[in-house]
Amino acid sequence: KDTKQQWFKDAKFGLFIHWGLYSILAGEYNGKKTDRIAEWIMNHLDIPVSEYEKLAGQFNPVNFNAEEIVKKAKSWGMKYIVFTSKHHEGFAMYDSKCSDYNVVKATPYKKDILRQLKDACDKYDMKLGLYYSQAQDWHDPDGLMYLKDNSHKDYQHYLDTKVKPQLTEILTEYGDIALIWFDTPMGTTPEQSKSLVDLVKSLQPDCIVSGRIGNELGEYMTTGDNFIPRLPYEGDWELPATLNDTWGFNKDDHNWKNPDDIIRLLLKVTSRGGNYLLNIGPDATGHVPDRSIAILDEVGKYVQDNADS
Ligand code: JFZ
């Protein structure tokens, strides 16, 4: 019997962390605001790679405190954290040997965010999964970009020279990784998806692969924001959700959800066998928005008061 995924079935509640260079723009570039999710600003406002990559030179999140975040997640009753090791922007939040476009080599901060987070997770016995944007990469010339012409690109070349080497790094240099949260597969072929699954499994057999690997090769279904599958649903599933209307930090998004509504949804999700993965988006200094903490403190209090274990 396959029990490697038991922890996921039991988890119920997790913390998503969206963090990258987009947190510097915080929803605004050259006086223009994005009305969409803030981590997509490069795409939505058509910011050229040569301009966007300069943001790395400003990234200095001195307020980032991995232990604080992990301790908070623990206090909220969460059982796992999923962190954006590389989002669509293409920037690695860890010390990558195969792309200098990363937090250690390209920023004044120079420290490995993933390393700090993993150390803190290990210390407090928290599972860490990694979001990795396998298809979209707006920095690599051969990475895909949603709603743009990708026909001239050598996608396979990008998979071979960036995705596979980077997946190998995050799965060999940071200890146990609970899951890889792939996303937006776009035109990835079944063979290509399979080759990524095989790579993950060859390096860490117990690492779970998310549904957004594409081509129905994932080991659980991750739904759209606020979408709950109809019963009966047999497989494992997870609902990722934001606390306002963005994943990455947006200074102008104050449309925060009500803690009571979040608690209601948590009950609905868990009663149907799913996991609720709630997001925070730290700002460019590494600070987690106060409102996010306040909401989760309230939700967490409910969870702790009603914990069954
Ligand atoms: C994707 C990303 O593009 C986004 O930036 C964020 O990381 C989010 C968690 O995942 O966005 C999606 C992808 C698929 C759906 C919704 C949002 N979906 O299937 O409903």
Automatic annotation (TrEMBL):
It comes from the Bacteria. The lineage of its organism: Bacteria, Bacillati, Bacillota, Clostridia, Lachnospirales. One of its GO terms (molecular function) is alpha-L-fucosidase activity. The chain holds residues 2 to 310 of 414 of the full protein. Alpha-L-fucosidase is responsible for hydrolyzing the alpha-1,6-linked fucose joined to the reducing-end N-acetylglucosamine of the carbohydrate moieties of glycoproteins. GO terms for cellular component: lysosome. GO terms for biological process: fucose metabolic process; glycoside catabolic process. Belongs to the glycosyl hydrolase 29 family. Coiled coil: none annotated. This is alpha-L-fucosidase. It comes from Robinsoniella peoriensis. The keyword Electron transport does not apply. Its EC number is 3.2.1.51. It is an enzyme of class 3 (hydrolase). Keywords: Glycosidase, Hydrolase, Signal. Residues 4-307 form the Glycoside hydrolase family 29 N-terminal domain.
